[in-house]
Amino acid sequence: MTTILAISGSLRAQSTNTAVLRTAAELAESPLIVELYEGMSSLPHFNPDDDHDPLPPPVAALRNSIHIAHALLFSTPEYAGALPGSFKNLLDWTIGDDQPGSIYAKPVAWINASAHGASDAQTSLRLVLGFAHARIVDEACADIPITTNDIAPNGVISDRAVRERLAAVLARLR
Ligand SMILES: Cc1cc2nc3c(=O)[nH]c(=O)nc-3n(C[C@H](O)[C@H](O)[C@H](O)COP(=O)(O)O)c2cc1C
Predict the structure, then answer these.
(1) Does residue 11 have its Cβ closer than 6 Å to ligand 1?
(2) Cβ proximity of 145 and 115 under 8 Å
(3) For 100-144, what is each residue's pLDDT tens digit?
(4) Residue of the nearest CA to atom 14 in ligand 1?
(5) Which of 34, 39, 86, 88 is the Cys-Cys partner for 25 at CB 3.0 to 4.6 Å?
(6) What is the pTM for the complete model shown?
């Protein structure tokens, strides 16, 4: 089995970024599993004073999900020319993890689901992942613009071209 942990940078219930990752999870076929991380709203504000055992339980759960994943797949909106604060907070909690399976050297890629470019968020994500020493898999990163209209009532994207591009992302990251 190969496990990819999918992490959305948006907390919005109708998020296009989360829909993209949810669709990727639906597309994954054995022996590939895409697990959608859903704990971002539970993470405490990053505080280096708390970055030691015992970790706050939501942080321990995040790190455990990262440890057991073979790769990470992100999709995030841009807020005010940068990464959403909640998502940067999540990334900050990954930096100090010195345990086996941490984000250090882990293969990572991201999907840019914005229809408007959102290039500052992409640049910022690359910078932060560089500080984390993640292994960026450039050939798996893709611009796949999505609007709310593309999301079916069940929360996934049915457009065939989008699904094919998502499947290609998964294949490259795998
Ligand atoms: C407060 C706020 C600030 C935003 N700032 C930007 C921005 O700087 N650049 C951009 O391209 N989009 C910006 N947007 C638009 C969002 O990135 C866009 O709505 C995106 O689809 C939200 O992602 P989601 O659907 O996954 O929640 C902003 C939206 C909000 C609510």
Answers:
(1) no
(2) yes
(3) 999 999 999 999 999 998 999 999 999 999 999 999 999 999 999
(4) 79
(5) 34
(6) 0.98
